[in-house]
Amino acid sequence: MLELKHVHKVYRVGAFGGGRLRAVRDVNLTVEPGEVVSLIGESGSGKSTIGKMVLGLTRPSAGSITFEGTDITTIRGHSARKEYYRRVQGVFQDPFSCFNPIFKADRVFEMIRTSYFPETSTPVWREKVLDALATVRLDPDNVLGKYPHQLSGGQLQRLLIARALLLDIRLLVADEIISMLDASTRIDVLNLLADLKERGLGILFVTHDLSLGNYVSDRSVILRKGAIAEMGPTSKVFDNPLHPYSRHLLSCVPQLHRTWAEVDAELEADPPEDVVLPVATDDASAPLLEVEEGHFVGIDQG
Amino acid sequence: MTLRVNDLKVYYQTLRGDVHALDGVTFDLADGEIMGLAGESGCGKTTLGKSLIRLDSRMRHVGGTVELDGKDVPVGDDEAMVPFRYHEISLIPQYAMSALNPTRKIGRMVNELLRARGVRPADIADELKRRLELVGLDPDVLDRFPIELSGGMKQRVVMVISTLLNPSLLIADEVTSALDVSTQRAVAESLVEFRDREYVKSMIFVTHDISLVYQMADTIMVMYAGHIVEKASAKTVINEPRHPYTQMLIGALPEVGSTTVQGRLEGIPGTPPGLLDPPTGCRFKDRCPLAFDKCSERPPLVEIEPGHWAACWKTG
């Protein structure tokens, strides 16, 4: 459904834009319908840049991004872009700043109606809104007609997902959507993503938190300095990490029932075998090597 | 006993009345103890950290006492607190990264800070360099501006500065929340190292991340809506929590290795109560599956087994 091929993004940096920063380096990945793909990386790994390029908020410097057969960089003009956003929507990290505090929170639904469904009659639209709210498990009495400050972060985030569901979206880009939510409500939003997946939606789940990435996703992509370090089915990536960077990351994640010392001792007692990593021929390429079926490792960047 | 807090109440003054952010908090902190203070946003954990060092203009000390190393700490008296600050009680603030003055080189800023507290910078220069090396920083950072350092480096600089005068109590407020996982581990481990080397006698580590606190803390105290719900050793809180809130909170955390396929985790239904007009009795009763008639009275924090305190009628 969504396919990224040799995508690069180079930013100009420095006082006069003389410097170059390769934020995304030779990334290839696909998202299928009904699949959650996690993009996991630390700050500066290019995970959000990939999300932005998929949403058309910034253009790739090289490579192609195709969505259901059309290259999205060739989409020109207001109406064509609008059609694209009918099928692809994003939800972002900070639900509090996504709402205008002057208006009631459910205004976001009304705005979708005026721009995409001007012909729909009010009762039909109301039915649609209630349906979307039921999907995200919000009680309409609690959220409709309220101002943003009267709602919690989890409720606002679910309102934004409900808003995206009013359109017949096929792909949702979820960029750090739960990092600002509390532990007790976080899991509800994650479970919601799992529900949406069952309805056939493709989800690109951008996160820095490995345990959250692991919980919902079918496939995981670990990024480092813009290039893919490891990609594969989530169970394989987490149970048998092959790239030294993924192993390092996993050993640093605080776990609930094991301390870091225990994890280190286990690694010491049973060191994993080294894997031959692919070598980049120049600064721009980042080849992947398939170690087992569907499980890739990327270049070593020191 | 380093720190003894007894029935501390701190309210925020607002136009609509008092917000009962900290409503009768009682606990002890032993020498050399690292206590993790965990809870959701708005539970009063940052308020507790702040009230031990400086109340801002909206905060009002309503009742209760704080005792540090046998001396009474006058938390409500801004002037009288001055000798305690930095010398006895020190704080690493939330988002410490933006706590550094961007117009000063770090070395100069440290010197100004020390002079303001009546310490001659020359007496402490060697120790400062030693400690920077201990956390893995080159002493050259003293000649740099904060903008030249990465987030993790700034965090470590602030850590060294805050603990330079060997305070008795260090309050670390969400110090690792803005860091990447690998830097987070390095920072957390250096905090433990500081305790082991007795740079700080005891520490309150405020965080919302329970799995992180389990890695480094000796004890964990869980707060909910201005009350303490449970305090015990880290292992006990994680493996055998007794209070229903702690149990549900830990049950809602996904771990590396848990997936939706193996079974879904459940969140806690409902939202925490507003503290402007808090409910009487147990503040968790509206979301609690075990709630019964008696919960309309506030459950006391009782020691249910040695070192394990919980505030719930069902555990007592």
Q: What features would you describe in this structure?
A:
The complex is a heterodimer of chains A (302) and B (316). Chain A has helices at 47-54, 78-87, 107-116, 122-135, 140-143, 153-166, 183-198, 210-216, 234-239, 244-252, 260-269; strands at 2-13, 19-31, 36-40, 62-67, 70-71, 88-91, 171-175, 202-207, 219-224, 227-233, 289-292, 295-297. By secondary structure, chain A is α/β, with parallel strands linked by helices. Chain A has one domain (2-234): 3-Layer(aba) Sandwich (Rossmann fold), CATH 3.40.50. An 8-stranded mixed β-sheet of chain A has the order 6-7-8-3-9-10-12-11, sandwiched between helices. In chain A, strands 2-1-4-5 form a 4-stranded antiparallel β-sheet, with helices on one face. In chain A, a hairpin with a 2-residue loop joins strand 9 and strand 10. In chain A, helix 4 packs across helix 6. The longest helix of chain A has 16 residues, at 183-198. Chain A is globular. Chain B is of the alpha/beta class and 316 residues long. Chain B has one domain: Rossmann fold. Chain B has helices at residues 45-51, 106-116, 121-134, 151-162, 181-196, 210-216, 234-239, 244-251, and strands at 3-14, 17-29, 34-38, 59-68, 71-73, 89-92, 169-173, 202-207, 219-224, 227-233, 302-305, 308-310. In chain B, the strands form 2 sheets. In chain B, strands 6-7-8-3-9-10-12-11 form an 8-stranded mixed β-sheet, sandwiched between helices. A 4-stranded antiparallel β-sheet of chain B has the order 2-1-4-5, with helices on one face. In chain B, strand 11 and strand 12 (308-310) form a beta hairpin. In chain B, helix 4 (151-162) runs parallel beside helix 5. The two termini of chain B are 25 Å apart. Classes of the chains: A alpha/beta (302), B alpha/beta (316). The A-B interface holds A 42-43, 152, 182-188, 190-191, 194, 208, 210-212, 214-216, 234-235, 238, 248-250, 252-257, 259-260 and B 40-41, 151, 180-182, 184-185, 188-189, 208-212, 214-215, 238-239, 248-250, 252-260, 264-268, 271.
